[in-house]
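U., I forgot to send this yesterday:
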Amino acid sequence: MIELQNVTLRIGSWQIRDLSFQVKGGEYAVLMGRTGIGKTSILESICGLRRVAAGRILIQSVDVTSWSPADRKVGYMPQDLALFPTMTVRQHLEFAPRIRGLAGKTIRERIAQLAERLEISPLLDRGIRGLSGGESQRVALGRALSAEPLVLLLDEPLSALDELTRIAAQKLLKRLNQEMGITVLHITHSREEAAALADTCLELDVVPESRRAVIQTLSLR
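Result:
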């Protein structure tokens, strides 16, 4: 479960106030809204990369507002994927478990299972350069899932993919959500993508004068 309670975000002169919404445990939620309105900043605040000026962020009903990113059990996949060019696919998947101090055998077993689930086992010893868009997306997704997070945050993860690869990736994301029971919050501008994936679709708007956030639940079916 993800819950934001009266959250205020400030970046320089920009701000968004009184943001409140909830994503139920195990739900696949999509967040929509116009470019520049603050959707990425919301994901960054949930995973702890951006401090909130006011309000509370709860994961599984626990207030994590002041917690470090490493302690929140949140997996984050940024829009640009942020893959490291000097690391192999295996090293990407091992990155978070190693930081958390897991034993080598546990890491190897977890990475083998995750790579099989994502259908990237043949890529484990390859570098990042030369991977297709769909392969890179799966590696970034695997890195986000490798520490077994309670919550998965996806920032326009399919926007750079061709149509066939995007459809396959949609099926993979929905399958992972259902099989792993992980709570997902996914940013997209595509209503078609939202309709294919979302249990709940939220649309963010902001009142210009007060900068107060307005969240509406959309029906896409």
